Structure formats: C-alpha cells, structure tokens
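This follows on from our talk about sequence and fold. Please put the record directly below this note.
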Amino acid sequence: MTFVDEVKNAVTPRAALLVIGVLGLQLLFIASYVGALHKPKPTDVAFGVVAPQQMSQQLVTRLDELPGGPLDPRAVGDAAEARQQILNRDIDGALIVDPAGRTDTVLVASGGGTVLASSLEKILTGVEATQRRTVRTVDVAPASREDFDGLSSFYLVVGWCVGGYLCASILAISAGSKPANRQRAVIRTGVMALYSIAGGIGGAVIIGPILGALPGSVWGLAGLGALVVFAVGMITLALEALTGIVGIGLAVLIIVIAGNPSAGGAFPLPMLPDFWRAIGPALPPGAGTWVARSIAYFKGNAITGPLLVLSAWAVVGTAFTLLLSMRHRPETAPPGPAPTATAPGGSTLT
C-alpha cells in the first residue's frame, strides 16, 4: 500500500473537511477575542449632565466634542433623576455640577463593570482639571467586594452556556448521532429542560450563598440560568438536527466565538468595537450577562428586552428541533421470519 493510500485510509474526506472546519473555528476564535478585547476604549457612553440651565448645554457640547467621542452626553433635570436613570440602566454615569463650589460629583455604577466606571472617572477628572475644578466619585450601584472587576455575572453566564451546548451535544451523539425522530426529539427536549432547571439553580446557589460573589435574588438568578441553559441547549440541538455533527461547531461559533467576547463581560459594551457592541445584546451570553448584572446590582431593572432575546432563542431552537424531527420516519423493526402454524397431525404450515 502506498503512502497516499495510507493517508486516505487514515483521514477520510469527511474527516479532512471537519479538520478544516475546526481550523476555521480556531482562527475565528483568535480573531474574535483579540479583535474585541485587545484595545478597549469607551465610545458613546450614555452620560448625564446635571448643571444650571445657563451652562448645561455648553457643558454637554464640550463633553460631546471630546477627542475620540468617549461620551454621549445628555442634560438631566437633577441629581435624583440622574441616579434613577443609572439604576434604570438608561445611562452609565453622570456629572453633577456644584455651581456654588469648585468640586463636582461624578456618579458611576461599578456593578455594570468596574472598568467602565474607572474610565468615566478618569475622563471627567481630566475634563474638570482643564476648568480648574475637581471631582469626587459616588458609586450608585457598587460591585460586591467579592466580585472582582464585576466579572462574576459574566463567568456565571459563560458556565451556563457551556453546560447548555455540552449537554445538547451529548444528547445529539448519544445514539451515534442518529437523526432525531419525533419521539427522540421530544425526549431530548424534556431532558434538556430538566437539566436547565438543575443547572440554573446550581449556578445561582454557588455564585450567591456559597461563594457570596453576587448579591440579588437567588431565585431570580436561578430562573435566568434555566432560561440561558435551555436557550443554548435547544439552539444546539436544532443546529445538529439541521446539519448533523457540524451543528455542534456552529453552536460553538455562535455562543463561544461570537457571543463571549461581545457579551460585555471583561469590558462593558460601551468599551467594545462597533461590530461586537452591535451583536452582543442579540446573543445568549450578552443578554444573560446584562440580566445577571441587573438582578445583582440594579434592582432587576431593564431586563425585559434581554429576556425576550433569550426566550426567542429558546423558542426558535425548540421549534426547529421538533419540526426537523418530522423529516425522519420512526424506526421500525426489521422484518422477521414468516409466521408458522402447526396443522393437525404435526405438519408445519407457513
């Protein structure tokens, strides 16, 4: 047997295509993570300005014209409204000008990401210094001391996502990657639902009562976790039903390669490049991270949109999994030998 024949026996054309696909995923992983995270900088951060009417618009214009466009400033009525808008996650920070003194106040929310809060403080300190003014920083929604850099929400959601697509992958290949008929698809969906509930509760208990990394409602986080795991798991099952084992790679592409770096975990969304900032909220890791932080630090505000995103992934994944299963007829037993009967006198009839 020649060397070429040995290669053909060792690596089938199908295996070669899968290896090429894995190489593509590897390169996309590098490009996505490095592209999103190698040079974070705030851009168009929603920012409030509380100042006397005669200077409010002038200050908004000055902040809007800062080099690089780090802020998207808008006038806010008073300090109480600015605080409420931050807690509602409508803005990420605010400057409150003291017309009677030379020390102004910067409101931030490190619960939404300590890197962003620090960046806002640095930017406003520089701006105020040019006017010979100083600032003091007030954290309206501070991150837990056990939540370094506000990353616990992100890691929690990543764990749920990993569990979702790994469980779905195991279910998909447990019978030798057989296509899911209707009965098999219903069973896999039921198992995925039970696993999601267990994973959601387990993650919430670990991150809250056991480690003390996140405050907020344990049951709220548990419900979020169940939805994240189920959404990721069902979209993985749907992709596998559509494309076979390649669907597992497609799930990795959506969740890991595109979803994780755009989730606003390591760096909040306003610090990501435009492409990742645009896709992040529409993918499960980004939607889940936003809701987890809202539950932990923002009194559960601003979660309707992200929950609808996660629900859409879950519904679409479930619908496609069940619909695609209808393409396959139920498996039937192979035909056996013809039935026999015994005639009177002991002879056999067929």
Notes: The longest helix spans residues 182-210. The chain has twelve helices and seven strands. The longest strand covers residues 45-50. The radius of gyration is 28 Å.
